[in-house]
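Quick one - inputs below.
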Amino acid sequence: MLMSEVKLYPSFQGRDFICMADYTQEEIYQIFEVAQSLKEKQRRREPHPLLAGKTLGMIFTKSSTRTRVSFEVGIYQLGGYGLFLSANDIQLGRGETIHDTAKTLSRYLDGIMIRTYDHQDVLDLAKYASIPVINGLTDLLHPCQIMGDLLTILERKGQLQGLKLAFIGDGNNVAHSLLIGGAKVGMDVVIACPMGYEPNPAIYQQASAIAEATGARLQVVHDPREAVVGADVVYTDVWASMGQEKEREKRIQDFTGYCVDAQLLKLAKPEAIVMHCLPAHRGEEITDEVMDGPQSVVFDEAENRLHIQKAIMALVMA
Ligand code: CP
Ligand code: NVA
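Output:
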């Protein structure tokens, strides 16, 4: 295969990647296609320096293993350079404005990946930066995660449209991006959460409007068993997200009955796959037996973060 065989789409150039709602279904599939060809190139160890000489700044105000390593390795494999910027070490952490940070970084870098708390900060960064901004997780959304997850489901099931995904847990950033991403690709998404832990109503509404066009059915229920029946994909995430550490004990109580264990999994389709964005709190939202069992694809998801993010970077930063 020649390098020219990785087909990039010019319509992506210079765009931000903040929410899957900003991309059409066709564009989402174009990202999968590029990710699959880059994955194949990497598997064959064929160089693919699509971003030679380009630099990605990676701002983190929260911890990360997968996002940091996959973006850094990803930009390196594309021939570029990844600059880790801990918010503690840059002036942003001492009160320099998002505006001034965006303007300054745009003079040095070719793209910015940011992981932070407030989603508005990412929107502001993108507004003032003249280079693409990629959302590496906010309190509201985690789109790169869900893009990698959908690629994983596509690889395993050969389709996305018409499948049923049951998310068992908190109506959090991952649940929000699953609602929007599922709606975009026509996949049914059922969220099972305790009372008071429902997804953000504005996100649910936004996803429902998208679902109307694609035929996806979205639902929120309060019984994990009801959600899992007939599911092709069973997905879970931590009960206390980053920034909610103080609520952890209360949440452990409130999420009683929401552990994805072998008994719950039996209600899904026999060939159902189990997903978790990681990091997991084993023994809380998922048992060791399920996480390490034959239906689990959690480390494939982690790997696909690399390939999908390389595709996103190559498309928007080329
Ligand atoms: N899933 C995910 O984003 O993992 P990290 O927090 O380790 O980046
Ligand atoms: N919901 C989790 C996802 C971590 C990747 C969090 O925000 O901490």
